[in-house]
Amino acid sequence: MYLNYGTGTLGGTVTKSWPPGSTLIARLMNLTGGYLNHYGDYSTAQIAAGLNYTYGGWANNNSFSDLENTKLIVQFGNNPAETRMSGGGLIHHLMESKARSNAKMIMIDPRYNDTAGGREDQWVPIRPGTDTALVAAIAHVLITENMVDQAFLDTYCVGYDEKTLPASAPANSDYKSYILGRGEDGIEKTPAWASPITGIPVDIIVKLAREIGQAKPCAIFQGWGLQRTANGEIASRAIAMLALLTGNVGINGGGTGARESDYNIPFVRFPIPENPVKTAISMFLWTDAIVRGPEMTATRDGVRGKDKLDVPIKFIWNYAGNCLINQHSDINRTHDILQDDSACEMIVVIDNHMTSSAKYADIVLPDLTTSEQADFCMDTKAANMPYFIFADKAIEPQFEARGIYEICTELAKRLGVEEAFTEGRDQEGWLRHLYKLTRDNDPSLPDYETVRKLGIVKRNDPNGHYVAYKAFRDDPQANPLSTPSGKIEIYSERLATIAQEWELPEGDVIHPLPVHVSTAEGWDDPMRSKYPLQLTGFHYKARCHSTYGNVDIIKEAARQEMWINRWMPKNAGSKTAI
Question: Which sequence ranges form a coiled-coil region, renumbered to this chain (predicted)?
Answer without folding.
Answer: none
